[in-house]
């Protein structure tokens, strides 16, 4: 296979700096970066989520150490191609576990594209790709289309792409005679091939003298340690006595998964109205009550449908006020619980005083957060800390890259648990899609490994008008 020469766009590095290792492919390809991309990355260093990724890139590429060479000093053999007039080429080395990866830095003192009302940097990146005959690699779809329309070669990086996320299913159905022991189920080939934490649904059978029929009784559970662990969902939930009772099978299974003694990591996806945040919060409260954890941490990617990228700095107010803009799903779940508590007993009414539509509701929410030791944390502040004995709720994970998931996952210390929540069809991140995002990556991992449990919540509880809009547009 012929060696390929790639010009890497900012979006590829901000997706995951380790894409460089993947693209280099053990010296099978040549990698190049323009000065425009370096400038964009430098501006991102102080940002939140993407800032960590930009800094990670610069940490690994260092200061071009003593192995780095400039076109003024390097021999022609060291450079993949000669520099164009007034250009400077520089070989830098990206440090990785696989060794040092050479990257050709292309610096152009004067670009042909001088002024442009929109997309000046994109035009200059494309200019470099054209002049050196490089394949532009970008996850910015607009840049990719403009580049291809001008007759240049441009590609996206489809690493970790999942073609049909809606078809990912953790449920497995079995038929079992009412008089048959569970060991009969466990001996079947279909059961033995299941991964740990597979969700199991059994339809009970009975027979007459001549035929088998379904009794209508259903049994639920999971595969754990090679055995079928049956769950009496209603009894388990009654014993836990959550503030708000899960009302459908999806919610009941999620609650029981999250509170299981052996479960440390879960991915739960579902659209708005599936109740994933409410159930996750209540599971955390149950673990807190059992003293399995001593607090709850809520993380949410600070990207909205109106923001190109998640930057708290553009919001007014102090940091708590800025985070408040993005933590509405948590506050909504807390307020729902408070409303339920206030309507259930006079004691709770007095504890969580205040009417729903007054400022006192804010006080009740703040009181709830402090009472249950719930912390709201910006993802950027997770760097360099170890999260010990906490239940972590990472919401809106579909707007997180794999690198961000790795950042949070590697912060987990002893006795901590984590649940990732998201809707893979609702993407606000500029470089991700419903086929390639943190949520679908985790769903794929949950299908393949025994470490993480997974469930897709397909039942939603919404008003009729909300449901109509969801189905009609």
TrEMBL record:
Pfam families: PhoH (PF02562), PIN_4 (PF13638). Residues 4-145 form the PIN domain. Keywords: ATP-binding, Nucleotide-binding. One of its GO terms (cellular component) is cytosol. GO terms for molecular function: ATP binding. The keyword Coiled coil does not apply. InterPro entries: P-loop_NTPase, PhoH, PhoH2-like, PIN-like_dom_sf, PIN_dom. Belongs to the PhoH family. This is Phosphate starvation-inducible protein PhoH.
């Amino acid at each position: 296979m012929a060696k390929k020469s790639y010009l890497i766009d900012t979006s590829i590095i901000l997706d995951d700096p380790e894409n460089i290792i993947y693209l280099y492919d053990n010296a099978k390809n040549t990698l190049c970066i323009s000065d425009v991309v370096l400038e964009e990355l430098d501006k991102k260093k102080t940002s939140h989520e993407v800032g960590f990724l930009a800094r990670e890139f610069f940490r690994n590429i260092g200061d071009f150490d003593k192995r780095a060479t400039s076109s003024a000093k390097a021999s022609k053999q060291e450079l993949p191609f000669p520099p164009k007039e007034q250009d400077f080429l520089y070989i830098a080395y990206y440090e990785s576990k696989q060794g040092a990866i050479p990257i050709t830095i292309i610096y152009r003192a004067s670009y042909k594209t001088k002024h442009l009302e929109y997309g000046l940097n994109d035009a200059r990146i494309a200019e470099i790709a054209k002049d050196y005959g490089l394949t532009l690699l970008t996850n910015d779809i607009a840049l990719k289309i403009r580049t291809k329309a001008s007759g240049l070669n441009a590609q996206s990086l489809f690493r970790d792409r999942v073609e049909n996320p809606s078809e990912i299913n953790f449920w497995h159905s079995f038929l079992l005679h009412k008089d048959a022991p569970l060991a009969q189920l466990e001996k079947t080939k279909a059961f033995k091939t299941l991964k740990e934490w597979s969700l199991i649904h059994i339809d009970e059978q009975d027979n007459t003298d001549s035929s088998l029929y379904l009794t209508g009784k259903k049994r639920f559970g999971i595969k754990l340690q090679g055995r079928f662990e049956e769950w009496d969902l209603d009894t388990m939930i009654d014993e836990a006595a959550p503030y708000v009772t899960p009302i459908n099978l999806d919610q009941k299974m999620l609650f029981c998964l999250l509170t299981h003694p052996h479960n440390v990591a879960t991915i739960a996806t579902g659209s708005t109205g599936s109740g994933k945040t409410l159930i996750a919060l209540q599971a955390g409260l149950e673990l807190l009550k059992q003293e399995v954890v001593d607090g709850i941490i809520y993380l949410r990617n600070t990207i909205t449908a109106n923001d190109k990228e998640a930057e708290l700095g553009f919001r007014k107010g102090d940091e708590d006020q800025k985070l408040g803009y993005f933590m509405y799903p948590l506050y909504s779940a807390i307020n729902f619980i408070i409303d339920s508590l206030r309507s259930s007993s006079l004691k709770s009414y007095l504890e969580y005083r205040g009417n729903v539509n007054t400022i006192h509701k804010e006080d009740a929410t703040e009181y709830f957060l402090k009472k249950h030791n719930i912390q709201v944390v910006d993802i950027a502040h997770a760097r360099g800390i170890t999260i010990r004995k906490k239940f972590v709720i990472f919401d809106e994970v579909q707007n997180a890259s794999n690198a961000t998931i790795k950042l949070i996952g590697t912060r987990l210390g002893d006795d901590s648990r984590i649940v990732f929540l998201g809707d893979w069809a609702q993407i606000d991140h500029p470089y991700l899609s419903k086929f390639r995002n943190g949520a679908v990556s985790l769903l794929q991992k949950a299908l393949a490994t025994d470490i993480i449990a997974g469930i897709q919540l397909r039942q939603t509880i919404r008003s009729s008008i909300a449901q109509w809009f969801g189905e009609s547009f």
